[in-house]
Write a sequence for this structure.
């Protein structure tokens, strides 16, 4: 078990390293001079050189790359071209903001989706519940997440005027956790979280349903029914067994899901890491964009690892080798 | 052996539970298949008296499992079920969901055909037994677990293995675990659907010995489904022989197996290896040529006629009813009166060989 985790961590490191390298060179291949953005007109040549040096943009590409790696190892992501401050200081609050919508959104989406999928899978084959459930889930799955977001905005924000749909509200001079423990912040949270939940439900629902449909004809289900337990309990057995494929899908699908969350952040102007990433790319703010991609790669790799380990917890038949 | 089992909560409370009486009347099950309705069970009636063991025999596909599942109402929603299943006089087929839930496992427990897949793969075996107990009794987990330990001892498994998951068990152990679970409420009727089919001969013997011991100790009513005539001879008081969804012969096991009246039973009898009596030559194994008729379009007249060496024109035209053939014995054959002659001819391989040619 420990050897397995160790090996998987090593594999993860390789993946992250590869992503980092590709990103570094990708941004350099783009035919534009990053200094253009920072160099003020009429700046002297010496001043420009000094600036380049400060940003680590001197020397050959190789030298720049090695320096970048060395800094990365030391935990130094460099400075943002745009914000003129350490990348880390820019990203950290953005990450926290993203977690505020991603964690509840994904958890609720997975739970609600799995519960609905269990119900739809357990419903009579070919009945209204099954057909309606599949139809609605398929439609929502086919809907781009920005449409979901805009629809929520239109209905709850513009039309009904119940909920705010822009940003996080004014924190005033609150700092730390107090920034988040505001009624206004929680109100602003509702719509983006809802968008993530709706975006995430259909895939969970459909996967859970097909698992339950497959399991309900298994022999062990017959015996569970014969034992005279409640119908809900029988469905639970089928659902419990269907969780296995769900988990294998859930964590790796995080990569795709992150794309959905980026869109949600943009639609609701939510200052999260996804929105920041898009902005950084359009501003050619390489250090910031590279760091954001690096963090995403780490997250996805860790999610895959978590999926593997959770699977082992859920399915006693799994052995780690 | 009863003395070998220590006195437990199980013996004191559940041991007193009486075996039940089962009467099945005109049971009919129609599956909806893609090609049309299939009457897999077509008017089956039989009785299991308290504490008795009924053997239900017949070749694969004749409808044995369908009967068993119908008794517990485990068939898929698409199957239409008719007739009456009277458990101590109460019709299971007419019960509402609540009453049915209470009858399941409390009154009728099931030992399934495929013990390999009969247990939930992701739940500890002990917890699955505990689940069956706590579905019906207001007892704590610890009490239920303790009873599961008693049950494991009863079927010859180390109680520590309750902590294991099904995949950690061998096929034989899984079958024992399923039997242990079937005993968890000491139901008055046990349905054992081919409890040993998937096992090797040695394991089969061990499991059957276990079941016999349980029968002696716990004195349960029981239906033993099998296609092994030998198992019926060893374990059953009475027997019902099924063919293509119907019972073609029934009666006391000793009578039906020694003096079968129906040509199908005679053929079935020949198809199983027996230990020869002293001085007797080992009887040859003779199989019945041909296969079960297509239930979508069963033949007019006797369903066994296409494979029966004694079939006449009357057999092919007229459907024989189940009628008394000998004291306590019933057979669905127009010519059951000639059973003695059939038995003599049926013991000769030539009789069935000729049929094999004809069927081909
Ligand atoms: N769910 C179903 N839908 C349609 N037909 C079915 C279904 N289950 C069983 N059948 C058919 O009903 C008939 C009886 O099946 P059943 O399982 O009761 O036979 P069996 O006597 O138990 O056979 P075996 O010895 O192989 O277990 C078979 O022809 C089978 O194909
Ligand atoms: S009725 Fe005729 S065909 Fe059917 S079993 Fe009897 S002799 Fe054979
Ligand atoms: Mg069967």
């Amino acid at each position: 078990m420990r050897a397995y985790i160790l090996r998987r961590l090593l594999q993860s490191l390789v993946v992250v390293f590869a992503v980092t390298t590709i990103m570094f060179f990708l941004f350099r291949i783009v035919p534009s001079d990053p200094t253009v953005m920072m160099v003020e007109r009429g700046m002297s040549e010496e001043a420009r050189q000094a600036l380049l040096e400060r940003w680590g943009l001197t020397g050959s590409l190789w030298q720049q790359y090695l320096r970048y790696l060395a800094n990365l190892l030391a935990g130094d992501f460099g400075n943002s071209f745009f914000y003129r401050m350490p990348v880390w200081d820019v990203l950290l609050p953005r990450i926290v903001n993203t977690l505020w919508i991603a964690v509840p959104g994904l958890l609720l989406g997975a739970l609600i989706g799995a519960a609905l999928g269990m119900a739809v899978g357990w419903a009579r084959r070919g009945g209204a519940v099954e057909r309606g459930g599949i139809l609605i889930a398929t439609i929502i799955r086919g809907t781009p997440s920005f449409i979901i977001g805009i629809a929520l905005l239109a209905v709850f924000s513009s039309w009904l005027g119940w909920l705010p749909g822009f940003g996080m509200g004014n924190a005033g001079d609150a700092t730390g956790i107090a920034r988040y423990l505001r009624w206004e912040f929680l109100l602003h949270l509702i719509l983006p979280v809802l968008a993530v939940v709706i975006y995430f439900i259909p895939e969970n629902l459909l996967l859970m349903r097909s698992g339950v449909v497959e399991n309900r004809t298994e022999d062990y289900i017959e015996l569970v029914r014969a034992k005279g337990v409640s119908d809900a309990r029988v469905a639970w057995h089928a659902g419990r067994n269907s969780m296995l494929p769900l988990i294998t899908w859930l964590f790796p699908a995080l990569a795709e899901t992150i794309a959905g969350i980026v869109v949600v952040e943009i639609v609701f102007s939510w200052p999260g890491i996804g929105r920041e990433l898009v902005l950084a790319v359009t501003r050619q703010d390489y250090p910031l964009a590279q760091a954001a991609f690096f963090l995403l790669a780490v997250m996805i790799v860790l999610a895959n690892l978590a999926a593997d380990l959770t699977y082992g917890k859920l399915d006693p038949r799994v052995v780690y080798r | 052996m009863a003395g070998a089992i220590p006195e437990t909560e199980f013996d004191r409370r559940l041991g007193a539970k009486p075996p039940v009486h089962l009467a099945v009347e005109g049971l009919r099950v129609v599956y909806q298949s893609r090609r049309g309705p299939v009457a897999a069970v077509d008017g089956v009636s039989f009785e299991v008296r308290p504490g008795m063991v009924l053997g239900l025999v017949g070749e694969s596909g004749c409808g044995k499992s369908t009967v068993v599942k119908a008794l517990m109402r485990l068939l898929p929603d698409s199957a239409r079920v008719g007739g009456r299943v009277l458990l101590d006089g109460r019709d299971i087929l007419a019960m509402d969901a609540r009453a049915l839930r209470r009858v399941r496992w409390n009154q009728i427990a099931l030992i399934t055909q495929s013990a390999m897949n009969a247990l939930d793969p992701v739940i500890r075996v002990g917890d699955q037994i505990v689940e069956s107990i706590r579905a019906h009794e207001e007892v704590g987990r610890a009490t239920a677990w303790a009873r599961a330990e008693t049950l494991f001892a009863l079927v010859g498994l180390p109680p520590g293995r309750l902590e294991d998951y099904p995949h950690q068990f061998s096929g034989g152990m899984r079958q024992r675990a399923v039997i242990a679970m079937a005993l968890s409420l000491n139901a008055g009727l046990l349905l054992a659907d081919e409890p040993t089919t998937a096992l090797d001969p040695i394991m089969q013997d061990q499991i059957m010995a276990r079941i016999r011991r349980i029968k002696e100790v716990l004195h349960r009513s029981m239906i033993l489904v099998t296609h092994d005539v030998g198992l019926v001879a060893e374990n059953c008081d009475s027997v019902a022989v099924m063919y293509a969804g119907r019972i073609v012969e029934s009666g006391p096991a000793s009578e039906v197996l020694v003096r079968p009246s129906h040509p199908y039973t005679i053929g079935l009898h020949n198809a199983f290896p027996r230990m020869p009596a002293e001085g007797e030559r080992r009887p040859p194994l003779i199989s019945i040529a041909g296969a079960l008729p297509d239930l979508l379009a069963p033949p007019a007249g006797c369903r066994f006629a296409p494979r029966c060496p004694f079939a006449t024109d009357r057999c092919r035209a007229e459907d024989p009813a189940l009628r008394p053939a000998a004291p306590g014995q019933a057979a669905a054959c127009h010519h059951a009166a000639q059973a003695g002659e059939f038995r003599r001819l049926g013991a000769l391989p030539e009789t069935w060989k000729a049929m094999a040619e004809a069927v081909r």
Summary: The longest helix of chain B spans residues 201-218. The radius of gyration of chain B is 21 Å.
